[in-house]
């Protein structure tokens, strides 16, 4: 009996690329939806994926991508029009009569989150449950491991882990473990329909714990320094991170600091779905440092002189007025926004390791 064809969107991304390779390894035919034919896309093609180059916000491209497909892992891009794209994909999935969609979401979505991206995730999570014929399974991880390593040159050459996370703890998962969960629910979906899974790492870690682990991995003493959100923003600007990403990540940094990602963590969802224990942060860091492109496509360890130069660029970078930037782009501003840990509604579901969904669509 032939195996169903599976579409993976954002297939050149962190979890998308890992999911494509894992599905191929399990013998499933895979169509990889990418924005452009580049080195990352061609690597997937060489591994055995069928490439589809297109635009996730174009219905005609979605229709073409879903021809002959039975299941899909949909990873909405980190973009200001997330809801637009998520709804287009839901319509295309219904039209194509897919069996099931594994939808990438996040750990913190709720109705009154200050992040417009996070609120759109929350809206999409509800609406996907209302699709009349397509089943949905949610994959809703928190903060990935790679985020702790974006300052890799300073870690390796200066022994400094600079993050605005206070003493907040998290159980950061590997991108590959998140992909394993998505692959697990899609290759054998029957027992997972309607459920949500929050993949985490095996243990809660503070930034000081992360620094101790990195000391072992890089072979030099690494100290954590609690950076201000202002400094974090300047570093993001110097790295070339988009203003939209910066505007949203600032909220997540505050949530880490205030303990949102400790709630309900760690979970056993990686083992429950895949039969494998989640990868430790030490193992993840060793792999990612050996291949910094897994952290960020433009990141390199470089030299100590380069690390010093980067710190100088950070110091010289101007701090953008993010609130003004959001207002100028028409981002809806709530009267009483609440970060995840401050929402009683969100905490009530998070403590049960469940996605925050409206009553009646649980």
Describe it.
By secondary structure, the chain is α/β, with parallel strands linked by helices. It is built from 15 helices and nine strands. The chain has two domains: 6-143 and 173-197, Rossmann fold (3-Layer(aba) Sandwich), CATH 3.40.50.720; 145-171 and 201-263 and 279-329, UDP-galactose 4-epimerase, domain 1. The strands form two sheets. A seven-stranded parallel β-sheet has the order 3-2-1-4-5-6-8, with helices on both faces. Helix 8 packs across helix 12, helix 9 (229-239) packs antiparallel against helix 10 (243-257) and helix 9 crosses helix 13.
Q: Quick one: overall form?
A: globular
Q: Using the CA coordinates, give the radius of gyration.
A: 20 Å
Proportion in helices: 40-55%
- Specify the CATH class of the largest domain: Alpha Beta
Strand content: 5-15%
Overall tally of domains: 2
- Uncertain segments of ≥5 residues (pLDDT<50)? none
- Strand arrangement, major sheet: 3-2-1-4-5-6-8
Mean of all residue-level pLDDT scores: 94
Distance linking N and C termini = 34 Å
Instruction: Tell me the CATH superfamily of the largest domain.
Output: NAD(P)-binding Rossmann-like Domain
Largest sheet: 7 strands, parallel
Total of helices: 15
> Which second-level CATH architecture of the largest domain applies?
3-Layer(aba) Sandwich
Structural class: alpha/beta
Helices and strands, in order, run as EHEHEHEHEHEHEHEHEHHHHHHH
């Amino acid at each position: 009996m032939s195996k169903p064809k599976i579409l993976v969107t954002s297939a050149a991304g962190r979890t998308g690329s890992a999911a494509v390779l894992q599905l191929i390894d399990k013998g499933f035919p895979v169509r990889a939806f990418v924005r452009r034919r580049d080195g990352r896309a061609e690597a997937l093609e060489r591994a055995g994926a069928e490439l589809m180059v297109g635009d996730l916000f174009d219905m005609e491209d979605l229709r073409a991508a879903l021809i002959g497909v039975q299941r899909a892992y949909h990873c909405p891009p980190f973009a200001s029009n997330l809801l637009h794209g998520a709804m287009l994909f839901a319509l295309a999935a219904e039209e194509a009569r897919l069996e099931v969609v594994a939808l990438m979401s996040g750990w913190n979505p709720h109705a009154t989150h200050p992040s417009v991206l996070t609120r759109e995730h929350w809206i999409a999570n509800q609406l996907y449950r209302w699709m009349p014929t397509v089943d949905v399974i949610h994959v809703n991880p928190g903060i990935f491991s790679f985020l702790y390593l974006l300052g890799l040159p300073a870690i390796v050459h200066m022994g400094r882990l600079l993050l605005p996370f206070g003493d907040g703890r998290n159980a950061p998962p590997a991108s590959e473990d998140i992909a394993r969960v998505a692959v697990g629910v899609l290759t054998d979906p029957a027992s997972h329909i309607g459920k949500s899974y929050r993949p985490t790492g095996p243990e809660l870690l503070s930034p000081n714990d992360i620094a101790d682990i990195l000391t072992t991995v890089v072979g030099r003493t690494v100290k954590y320094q609690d950076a201000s959100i202002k400094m974090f923003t300047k570093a993001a600007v110097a790295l070339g991170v988009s203003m939209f990403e910066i505007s949203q990540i600032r909220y997540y940094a505050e949530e880490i600091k205030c303990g949102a990602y400790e709630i309900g963590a760690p979970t056993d969802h990686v083992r429950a779905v895949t039969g494998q224990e989640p990868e430790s942060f030490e193992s993840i860091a060793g792999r990612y440092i050996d291949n910094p492109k897994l952290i960020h496509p433009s990141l390199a360890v470089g030299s100590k002189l380069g690390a010093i130069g980067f710190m100088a660029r950070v110091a010289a970078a101007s701090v953008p007025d993010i609130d003004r930037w959001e207002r100028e782009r028409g981002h809806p501003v709530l009267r009483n926004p609440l970060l995840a840990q401050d929402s009683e509604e969100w905490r009530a579901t998070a403590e049960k390791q469940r996605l925050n969904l409206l009553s009646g669509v649980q």
